[in-house]
Amino acid sequence: MATFLLLLDLLGTFVFALSGAMLAVRHRLDLFGVLVLACAAAVSGGIVRDVLIGATPPAALTHARYLVVACAAGLAGFRWHALVERLRNPVQILDAAGLALFAASGTGKALDYGLGPLSATLLGMLSGIGGGIARDLLVARTPVVLQAELYAVAALAGGGLVALGRLAGVPDPWPLAAGAAACFGLRFMAIRHGWQLPVARPPGP
Amino acid sequence: MATFLLLLDLLGTFVFALSGAMLAVRHRLDLFGVLVLACAAAVSGGIVRDVLIGATPPAALTHARYLVVACAAGLAGFRWHALVERLRNPVQILDAAGLALFAASGTGKALDYGLGPLSATLLGMLSGIGGGIARDLLVARTPVVLQAELYAVAALAGGGLVALGRLAGVPDPWPLAAGAAACFGLRFMAIRHGWQLPVARPPGP
Amino acid sequence: MATFLLLLDLLGTFVFALSGAMLAVRHRLDLFGVLVLACAAAVSGGIVRDVLIGATPPAALTHARYLVVACAAGLAGFRWHALVERLRNPVQILDAAGLALFAASGTGKALDYGLGPLSATLLGMLSGIGGGIARDLLVARTPVVLQAELYAVAALAGGGLVALGRLAGVPDPWPLAAGAAACFGLRFMAIRHGWQLPVARPPGP
């Protein structure tokens, strides 16, 4: 079970890093910039969560495996970006899996550190979407996770389910599993069917 | 007194969150993006301050009321943005009140955690303007608080007065009150009379 | 020796702050915005490093000298920006010195706080380039340190040498000196000869 979770965790890291590398290639950054965006996309969310709950130094820095995997994904994205572009659909599915895993485990970790359910859910969401926000800010564009179909909302739903499950005394790993499944399912359906949240209509010119 | 301060604190949170929601509506973010910008504008400054002085987890995460108020403001901004746009003047005054309160209380908290007067003043300023910076960065524009009329400078003056008062041994709550009043007064006059700091003239084309 | 290191440290702070001030002037920020960008460029890297290794409050806040030097550089940049523009070459050399020093000392500090060699090297790099990233994000442009000739790579090489030296048991200050020299030399040669990392070619229109 633990090995399975670790594998999922590293897979999520790889996919998030790949999204950073692809964005860097599109913005014509050099090899190093590609690696930086890969790492930023993969570990920023977890690092911000760890700093906020006081778990310093962050796990992404104390275990070299996350940065190693992120750099490997960066190199892969640098070398095979044309191929990855064509794989957009599978990548989106993997990305949804990474989001689900990060949101659920992030909420669990925040609860372990004594935060309340509301804050823990928010930190779980931040674990999931923080990497995408950092990635987009580094190339000076409005973070796509604030605009994509039910992206952060899916993370929020997954994290909330984890918090509720723990609050109700459901034993691990069921709250984590339910939260991750809910997040993945919601995001998957949103991609499939183009589900969107309402957008306010600002006064036109 | 404590209740009055808490009310002011929540009012400042609400107004800052409203400014984030309005910016999000203007950038056509969806409902969730509006809530994120509302929360970012309301609590980022305090969170950065708390992380820097080592007070983790930050108060904005341990007390749910701040996020609840920020989300309420986000919903209000989403629903009634046209109305809020027309109220620009009252909102600017409330925003000045929020800035004054955050700068004064932020400086006080940093002093309580043992920082020197100069650093505490800077952290007070950061408490006041950090939310506006995070809000603007999330839509990839140069933070308006670095350009508006005496915005950050008013926060700096208010924080400095708090630090000086504490240094001189003036008993609470007078340093806080004086600092908040100075910040509010300065910002109010700057809005009224369009006071500006000098701008350097870069070499023309 | 310690005095010499402190002098170098403050010189690096001054030069980094100057780069922030120059960017602010070019973006027509007011005097306060110039000071903010000067401080952000000078101390952000060190502050992020200190927060990540759990050394709060950060050194840049507990010792007033860094902020004082950064503000002095900001004022100088505001007043004499035309002159500084003409001195671009000497400033680039000083900037390389600042980068080398920050990367080496940042890696050393992270090792002192018990991080592994890989993470410490990354934190050293972050100490060196973090200020430039913060400076550029504040005016909403893609950080130049992700694009310049071997900028972050030089910091990485210098930090890595420090970590290797410490790992091999070489006594201080030799690892620090070797790391700083390597970083400076690499960056200097890259400026001289226009050395670049490869850039991936995204699919054309």
Topology:
Three copies of one chain form a homotrimer.
Chain A (H helix, E strand, L loop, with lengths): L1 H25 L4 H22 L6 H4 L1 H16 L1 H6 L1 H25 L4 H22 L12 H17 L6 H20 L12
Helix pairs in contact in A: 1-2, 1-4, 1-6, 1-7, 2-4, 2-7, 6-7, 6-8, 6-9, 7-8, 8-9
Shape of chain A: globular
* H-E order of chain A: HHHHHHHHH
| Approximate helicity band of chain A | over 70%
Based on DSSP secondary structure assignment, what is the total number of beta strands of chain A? 0
Q: What value does the average pLDDT of chain A take?
A: 86
Instruction: Give the percentage of residues in beta strands of chain A.
Output: under 5%
How would you characterize the largest beta sheet of chain A? none
User: How many structural units, i.e. domains of chain A?
Assistant: 1
Question: What would you report as the Rg of chain A, rounded to the nearest angstrom?
Answer: 17 Å
**Oligomeric state:** homotrimer
Show unreliable segments of chain A: none
The number of helical runs of chain A is 9
End-to-end separation of chain A in angstroms reads 57 Å
* Main interface: chain pair and counts: A-B, 30 and 31 residues
Structural category of chain A: mainly alpha
Pfam families (chains A, B, C): Gly_transporter
GO cellular component, one term (chains A, B, C): plasma membrane
InterPro entries (chains A, B, C): Gly_transporter (IPR005115)
Subcellular location (chains A, B, C): Cell membrane
